[in-house]
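Sanity check

After download, print the first record. It should look like this:
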Amino acid sequence: MTVIKKNELKNAGSDAPVMRGVDYRGLADFRYAIRKFLAFSEAAAMGAGLTAQQHQALLTIKGIGSEQGLSVGDLATRLLVKHHSAAELAKRLEEAGLVLRSQDPHDGRRVLLTLTDESERKLESLSGIHVSEIGSMAPELAAILAALSVRG
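Expected structure tokens:
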């Protein structure tokens, strides 16, 4: 997957190739499907007492981190936020009892984040309903992506 940084988007319109026969309906359907999933995810997180960003952070720590944890810098990268924003999020997560912060034993400058038992339970519950929702959306998404990839 290609990650585009915000500063790379500034001139995207002026340098983009002119496309004929663009499937605007397919693109609109794709964005709508993503937005529906994100709305579902935000509501599910709120139901578990988390913000969408907290849920995303917990999922990133669990899914991307090692047994020792995930660095604040890596969290910032994955959440597409600045380092200081991820550090503040980590501080709020720690204050809420959702993560533990520790110093990296190999690099004292790095802070590692691990999940608490409470956040593990919340994440497990949320992940189950997210996988179910993705499963129900899969046919629609597959059809949209197939139609768009044929044209691209």
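If your output differs, re-run the checksum step. Summary of this record's structure: The helical segments are 6-9, 12-15, 24-47, 52-64, 72-79, 83-95, 117-151.
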